[in-house]
Write a structure and sequence with these properties.
Layout: H1 3-22, E1 34-36, E2 48-51, H2 62-75, E3 84-93, H3 96-105, H4 112-126, H5 132-135, H6 138-149, E4 156-167, E5 179-191, H7 192-210, H8 214-226
Antiparallel strand pairs: 1-3, 2-4, 3-5, 4-5
Helix pairs in contact: 4-6, 6-7
Length: about 230
C-alpha cells in the first residue's frame, strides 16, 4: 500500500471517529493486545490449549472449525447459512475480561459496518491492478466512506466463541516469542439481498456526488456489474 492510500485511510478513520463523537455515539471498546477482522491469519487448531467448550466433542462450533480450516469462504459453504453473507470479527489478547466484554458488547447495528466496509474495500482492491483511488477517482473515497457510515439492514450477531492458543514469535523466530493468548470470535450474518441492496445504495450515493465521466465512469460501471463475484 503506498503512502497516498495509507493517508486516505487514516483520514477516513479520523473522520468516522469525530463523526461518531459529534453525534454523541462514540463507542469505546476495551483495549485487547491485538484486534483484526476476518482477514487475519487463522490460528492452527493444534495450537489451541483451551476453549469455551473444551470438554465437549467436538469442542469447536462448525462455523469456527470451518473458518480456522479454510477462512470465511469455508464458513459460507455451511448449509445452515445458505442465503447469507458471513463475517467474523476477531480480537485477541491476554486480558480475558476485557475481551469478553468486547465480544458481549459487539453490536450488529453499530459494529458490523466496520466488517462490511473492510470487505468492500478489499473487493475494490481485487478488481484493480493498481490502486482504486487512481482508477476510480473521488468515487473510491466517497464509496468507501459511505460503506463505513452506512446502515445494513438484517445484520444478525449469530454467535461468539473464545479459545486460548499458543502463538509464535514474529519474523520467523517461532521459539523466541511463544505465548498463550485468548482469541475471541464474533460471527455475524446478513441476508444476501440486504447486503447487495446496501452496496448498490452506496454506489448510487457515490456516483451522485462524484459525477465520474469517461474512462472512470466505464470502470465504475464494470465494477458495479461484477462487484459480488467472489465477494
Amino acid at each position: 500500500m503506498d503512502r497516498k492510500r495509507k493517508g486516505a485511510i487514516l483520514l477516513l478513520c479520523i473522520f468516522i471517529l469525530f463523526s461518531c463523537a459529534a453525534q454523541g455515539n462514540l463507542i469505546v471498546f476495551p483495549a485487547p493486545d491485538k484486534s483484526s477482522s476476518e482477514s487475519g491469519k487463522p490460528v492452527e487448531i493444534g495450537d489451541i490449549t483451551d476453549s469455551r467448550d473444551m470438554e465437549k466433542e467436538p469442542y469447536l462450533p462448525d462455523w469456527l472449525s470451518a473458518f480456522l480450516g479454510g477462512g470465511i469462504e469455508a464458513v459460507e459453504r455451511i448449509e445452515a447459512y445458505a442465503g447469507s453473507y458471513l463475517f467474523i470479527a476477531v480480537n485477541q489478547g491476554v486480558n480475558f475480561t476485557s475481551l469478553s466484554k468486547w465480544a458481549g458488547n459487539f453490536s450488529a447495528e453499530h459494529d458490523f459496518p466496520l466488517l462490511a466496509a473492510e470487505r468492500i474495500d478489499r473487493r475494490m482492491n481485487v478488481s484493480n491492478s493498481m490502486y482504486p483511488d487512481e482508477e476510480y477517482g473521488i468515487f473510491y473515497e466517497t464509496f468507501v466512506k459511505n460503506a463505513y457510515n452506512g446502515e445494513y439492514q438484517d445484520a444478525v450477531k449469530e454467535d461468539t466463541y473464545w479459545i486460548k492458543a499458543v502463538t509464535g514469535g514474529s519474523g520467523g523466530q517461532e521459539s523466541a516469542g511463544l505465548a498463550e493468548v485468548f482469541i475471541f470470535y464474533v460471527l455475524v450474518s446478513i441476508d444476501t439481498a440486504a447486503m447487495q441492496d446496501a452496496v448498490f445504495d452506496f454506489f448510487s450515493q457515490a456516483l451522485a456526488s462524484s459525477a465520474p465521466a469517461g474512462a472512470q465512469a466505464a470502470a465504475i460501471n464494470r465494477l458495479r456489474q461484477n462487484f459480488f463475484e467472489g465477494f
